[in-house]
Amino acid sequence: MKSSVTMMTQTTAALAMMAALAACSADEGDAADAEGAEEAEGHGAEATAGEVTGETSEPSDRETSEAGGPTPRLALTYDGGVQVLEGATLDTLSDHSVEGFLRLNPAGDGRHLFLTAGESFRLLDAGTWGEPHGDHHHYYTTEPVLTDITVDGDTPGHVVAHDGVGTLFFDGSGAIHTFDLEDLDAEAELETAEAAVDDAHHGVAVTLGDGSRLETIGEGEERSGARVLDPSGEEIAASEDCPGVHGEAALSNGTLALGCEDGALLYADGEFTTVKAEGSLETADGYARTGNLFPAEDSTVLLGDRNLDPEGEEPMTEIALLDADSGEMTAVDVGAAYNFRSLARGPEGEALVLAEDGLLHAYDESGEQLWELELLDPWEEPEEWQEPRPAITVDGDLAWITDPDQQQIHLVDLAEEEIINSAELDVVPNEIALADGRAPEGAESTEGADDADDSGGHENHDHEDHDHEEHDH
User: Residues with Cβ < 8 Å from 310, sequence gap 6 or more?
Assistant: First the structure.
């Protein structure tokens, strides 16, 4: 079986070529738009909101097609709904009307996402997945569908997938719902196991492979740290040395990290340790918040935002690079403001920052600038965190970046440091999230299944680690 790195490189190269060809075809076909509109609608390409709607098939009625490789799909929210785009061509595949402010989180299995709408997490099937079959993989696509499957509760917050288990956290009640990722299915209700923290707060929980659970400690607006409970609910480790604890990141070596107002809190081998923003990294009052952390594969270095103003009035212009192995933290001045939707990791562990100067900045793990790419006009973060602003999400060598002001989306080849495709949107994009369409590590092989299953009639929803939370508020 090919290594995941080799598969990712081949996949992203193929997608980059597809995107470039799609962009060229679009340029050549401008004069024939009217003639080709009917044909495009049939493939979900270049469709307007009037052509692609939430009137999707019943999940069981959808046709499945085998693809030549993984087919990433991007979901994006807007005021009034959520769209699903084809990752390479950026064509709109479906458009679903949903009222209220919406948030997006990958479910962790490479296929599904959770749409936070009102008082529920609602399952969105992006319709792309992969299955291992002996020494190779099969990949499939079908029509995206926003299901009626929900997990309901008071103020849904963070979604985390780890060790094959998904965990949903409800801020308003402190309720925790867990489920096996392989149980995600657009055609079946999702059964969850329920638990709760002692006091409701804006928090997060992570269920580990041995059945133990890490959960944050807090009450109302105050959050102080985290603890770990064994499968029977007995506390086995705890730390309240993490003021304002927020977010979650999982490193490849199994270490879990949480952001604090004075650094970060790490959990590994049954113990908590802290990494403090000390010396030149701390402010006069000791406040130096790292509220969102982003890992990279096979690296011990985490990228974090760095907020030095407890009132939240001054923009963030520095990032934090935290080595969970050595306990060292480095601050890097980007030279321009950014926000919590601006950060991501590149294929070689690069720290990527989409800043208000319109540039995508790339740094190595020591903090040295590698390159920068002009993408957008200069912009300013809106006052309300719910309002649209540029966002970035990454898969291998490829990055998807939104431009709400221009109602555009760009596909960037990070290896070549260039835009390879762009598309006009008929909505103002807000949050984005990706379903990568790959067979997750550890997925059960379908070798030996009957012909119907091997052709795509069988759907395998196994697990993939979800390494970070990309939101803040």
Answer: 261, 285, 287, 289
State the Cα–Cα distance between residues 238 and 295, nearest whole angstrom. Answer: 23
Tokens at residue 69, please?
């490789």
Q: Could you read off the pLDDT of 323-334 as tens digits, one per residue?
A: 999 999 999 999
What is the per-residue pLDDT across 149-191, written as a single tens digit (0 to 9) for each? 999 999 999 999 999 899 999 999 999 999 999 999 999 999 9
CB 394 within 8 A of CB 8: no
> Which residue in 350, 316, 314 sits closest to 331, CA to CA?
316
Confidence bin at 467 (pLDDT 50/70/90): very low
In DSSP terms, 59 is beta-bridged to none
Which residues does 38 contact at the CB level (< 8 Å), separation at least 6? none
**Pairwise CA distance, residues 52 & 94, whole Å:** 5
Q: Measure the CA–CA gap between 137 and 129, rounded to whole angstroms.
A: 10
Measured torsion, CA atoms of residues 377, 399, 81, 341, in degrees rounded to the nearest 10: -70
DSSP letter, residue 40? H
pLDDT band at 256 (very low <50, low <70, confident <90, very high): very high
β-strands 213-219, 205-207: how paired? antiparallel
- What's the start-to-end Cα distance of the chain, in Å? 42
- Alpha-carbon distance of 183 to 378, in angstroms, equals 44
What pLDDT is recorded for position 59?
Answer: 86
Residue 21 has pLDDT above 70, yes or no: no
CA distance 322 to 333: 15
Domains of the chain and any CATH numbers = 4-41+65-397+411-457 (2.130.10.10)
312 within 8 A of 337, measured Cβ to Cβ: no
Nearest to 117 by CA among 94, 148, 92: 148
Taking a C-beta distance cutoff of 8 angstroms, is the pair 294, 343 a contact? yes
